[in-house]
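Q: what does this look like with pyridoxal-5'-phosphate bound?
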Amino acid sequence: MNPASRVLVIAGSDTSGGAGLQRDLGVVERLGCRHASVVTALTAQTDNAVAEVFIPPPEIIAAQLAAAFSSGPIAAIKIGMLGNAPTLEAVADGLGVQTGAPLVLDPVLASSSGQILLDEPGRRALKIRLLPLCTLLTPNLEEAALLTDQPLAVSAPAIQDQANRLLAMGAKAVLIKGGHGTGEEATDWLVQANAKPLPLPAQRLQAHMRGTGCALSSAIAARLAHGDTLEAACRRAKTIVHAMIAAHSTNPPSHS
Ligand code: PLP
């Protein structure tokens, strides 16, 4: 394991292990990276419901961040659940004075069971404070619609339009994930300023696996830590997460 490939994961703990920090750290290790972590929230949850969410005070977030940075070089950063605006501000403040490590921001707004995981002031703060810092934003279709105040995108031009709006808000690149859409293919779109939007298609799988968004953003951060370009990191991460979902899938095996 290359000691230089250390990924900082800033995320909420999911007791069930299906998503959040636990999913992130598993993926980062599987991709051959070491990690440091900042716990933004403690949740008590099962695969079906979130019972409790405790968000530590911002001083504790700041202290964790400072300790993580002082414990060795960080090659890439992944941010997941942030919970509320004070936590988000503490993260943005702590990152502001730090390295130029690539930053992958998964804008976790709500769980698939419907629990709000970033409140409304937090959503506003995310646009102002974190979008301008991120190398890559990885919203799903619902998150892209919410962040751009647009209806859910149901066509490639509408997805690209929302990605362009997110670029205009400060993100350097946007990967809009098609997994929550419909149709036989689950196409993600990688959109960067001054480049043609890049479709990343994959066969849609029927599987009940949580934490796929967490896994994808962590895998991208891990590949960036290994030195991949953004496009290569997205392609490889997508292949890896597709294989993880396939292991949970009820689809007939694909021979393509
Ligand atoms: N809990 C935590 C701590 C998370 O970070 C996330 C997603 O990022 C979730 C729950 C929701 O996961 P899912 O939408 O897969 O249920």
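The chain has a mean pLDDT of 92. The two ends are 33 Å apart (CA to CA).
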